[in-house]
Amino acid sequence: MDVPELTRDELEALLERLHEASFGWALSCTEWNDADAEDVLQTTYMKVVSGRARFGGRSAFRTWLFGVIRQTAREHARRARSHRQRAEMLAREVPTNVEESADAGAERAERSRLLLGALAELPDRQREVLHLVFYQDLTIREAAEVMDVSVGSARVHYERGKKRLRSLLSERDVGGGDE
Amino acid sequence: MTEQRVDDGLRDRFQELRAETVRSGGAPEFGALMARAQAEAAARPALEVMEGGSTWSRRRVVRVGGWASAALAATVAGVLLTNRGPGEDDEFARLVAAYSAEASAGVWQSPTSGLLEVPGIDLVRSLPSIGTSVRGLDPSARPELETTPGPREDA
After folding, report:
1. How many domains, in total, are found in chain B?
2. pLDDT (tens digit, 9 = 90+) per residue, B87-124?
3. Of B10, B25, B49, the CB nearest to A52
4. DSSP letter assigned to residue B141
5. Mutating which of A2, A5, A10, A19 best tests the B interface, going by the most B Cβ atoms within 10 A?
6. Nearest-CA neighbor of A96 among B20, B26, B29, B13?
7. Residue A164 belongs to what domain range?
8. In A, which residues are within 8 Å of B54 by CB distance?
């Protein structure tokens, strides 16, 4: 499909609009490591503005961009450190607001920590599809495009991931399973 | 529907996580990140491009190519060394050589050749041809002629 080439300004405007969501996805792709997510996002933007990653118009810009972020995170992980080391780091580094020490804030932080811990135990594909659907509000079809798998495969990962996540959360928590 | 309620529960947890992420700092400032990205783009050498944004640096290409070449060379050498068994021609040549060596050494003998070994066979083998003298023969090869004494002259 031949799509009109986006200008540099248009590209930057699109990137800025999706910046917060892109960072959330980059966090998920880097086991929730802030520094790695920032590096991945910077490399992704570098690819986009330099034309090294080119939007072909075969999908929505957001799904294409998330695909580039995912690919870049994988390259980054290969260069940086093993997945195991990253998972260990996750257990120590969880986004918590240090200033907010009130009960409500502490409880939210604890619930987030539990969710991240449970997600870390899921296979990559299951974790990815759940994040894309529940955190990024993508459809399963869009998630499949980002993950470069068929819709059927994404749906299987989604169902298995939900089941496993519910089980993990109900073991540890505070209202996660809702069952 | 129970399943939907469960999904909503999970969705709420993720949305809570999203809010928590924003509260704890959120994304880095877009302008600064983009400026660094542009500086990186200007500084980097040209890379191969794919639509998905996967890139292979020259160093990586050289490294992978080097390993692939080494592996190919090792495979070819291994095949040449391990598959060097005797071919049909080699085997035939070896049999011919063995046969020739045995024949020239006179190793093989007929099972009935012993029947030919009779007293005086040497004489037969060394019969002089017409026009030659027996005096030239090896004395040991001459047969001892048994002579019966005749009547004495003076008897």
Report:
1. 1
2. 677 777 887 777 666 655 555 677 787 787 788 777 77
3. B49
4. G
5. A19
6. B20
7. 100-172
8. 71, 75
How far is residue B92's CA from residue A164's CA, in Å, rounded to a whole number?
A: 70
Residue numbers in B near A34 (CB within 8 A): 25
Tell me if A176 and B54 make a contact (CB, 8 A cut-off): no
Check: pTM over 0.80? Answer yes or no: no
Number of domains within chain A = 2
Query: Could you read off the pLDDT of A92-149 as tens digits, one per residue?
Result: 555 544 455 567 777 888 888 899 999 999 999 999 999 999 999 999 999 999 999 9
Q: For A118-149, b where at least 16 C-beta lie within 10 A, e where not — what string?
A: bbbebeebbbbbbbbbbbbebebebbbbbbeb
Same domain, A76 and A104: no
Best to test chain B binding among A11, A98, A134, A146 (most B CBs inside 10 Å):
A134
Lookup: tokens for A178: 């809702």
Contact state of B53 with A48 under an 8 Å Cβ cutoff: yes
ipTM of the complex: 0.77
Residue partners of B12: CB distance under 8 A and separation at least 6: none
Contact A115 B15 (CB under 8 A): no
Residue B79: inside a domain, yes or no?
yes
Q: Chain A to chain B, count of Cβ pairs less than 8 Å apart?
A: 132
Residue A95 lies in a domain: no
- Ranges of chain B whose pLDDT falls below 50: 1-4, 48-49, 51, 53, 155
A125 and A71 both lie in a single domain: no
